[in-house]
Write a structure and sequence with these properties.
With about 250 residues, the protein is mainly alpha-helical. The protein has a single domain, classed as MetI-like fold. Helices cover about 80% and strands about 0% of the residues. It contains twelve helices and two strands; from the N terminus they run ββαααααααααααα. Strands 1-2 form a two-stranded antiparallel ribbon. Strand 1 and strand 2 form a beta hairpin. The chain is elongated and about 70 Å long.
Length: about 250
């Protein structure tokens, strides 16, 4: 961040927004925005309660399961779409539709098909993440230098060898980029699932605090959620930068 020609330390913008938040809260312009100092104090007390820890465990388990299925299904499908023109023409229109469609509208359909349990929340989480993973894996395969594929054929590589040793590694920068975006979308999916399908986990806490106008607790849980999503995104971004040299070799 630059200000008046000087480079400010990282995260400086967050400090500015935190100061503005504190000012608005202290002025008591609206009950919806308590001072951030109050939210932070509430957060330290909240994270020690069993209700918060149980909600975190429930949300984390659904999130991890949903992201896992999105990755193990989305990456192979995206690679196969990049390899096969026929498969690409069959699936690409549907993938583009689900990327742009409001997936929240599908939640009632999922509830009818799969019920109101944890598996529906996991499916919802996967649906929010999988489509961008497929598109990025497909784009990564499309960018692969054809000479790499031809070389693997000359040396007698099987389809399995080409998949795991050529396509997967050469497309890895784009795949990690898709996973990073998919993980962020999965956070939205798991919370929507826990609010609309089964009121559990962080969804239950949001419902409880908002209905009782406990705004300090509400914002404290929201900060935790945003912090976890940001930390995961930054970690995946770090991995993405570490493997970026694969893109140059293509």
């Amino acid at each position: 961040m630059m200000a008046f020609g000087y480079k400010l330390p990282a995260m400086s913008s967050l400090l500015v927004w935190a100061a503005l938040w504190e000012i608005v809260g202290q002025l008591e312009l609206t009950f919806f925005v308590p001072p951030i100092s109050t939210v932070v104090v509430t957060l330290f007390g909240l994270v020690q309660t069993s209700a918060f820890l149980n909600a975190l465990a429930v949300t984390a388990s659904a999130f991890v399961a949903g992201v896992f299925f999105a990755i193990v299904i989305g990456i192979p499908v995206g690679i196969l779409m990049g390899k096969s023109r026929l498969l690409d023409e069959l699936l690409l229109p549907w993938v583009n539709i689900f990327v742009s469609a409001p997936l929240t509208a599908l939640v009632p359909v999922l509830m009818v098909l799969f019920g109101f349990g944890a598996q529906t929340i996991i499916i919802t989480t996967s649906l929010f993440a999988i489509w961008i993973i497929i598109l990025n894996a497909r784009a990564g395969v499309k960018q692969i230098n054809r000479s790499l594929v031809e070389m693997s054929r000359v040396f007698g590589a099987s389809s399995k060898d080409a998949f795991f040793k050529i396509y997967l590694w050469a497309a890895l920068p784009e795949i990690l980029g898709g996973v990073r975006i998919g993980v962020i979308r999965a956070v939205k999916g798991v919370i929507i699932g826990q609010l609309l399908i089964s009121i559990v986990g962080f969804g239950a806490l949001f419902e409880l605090y908002s209905s009782n106008f406990l705004m300090a607790e509400f914002w404290a849980v929201l900060i935790v959620l945003f912090g976890l999503a940001f930390a995961i995104s930054e970690f995946l971004g770090y991995l993405e930068r570490k493997v970026s040299y694969y893109a140059a070799s293509r």
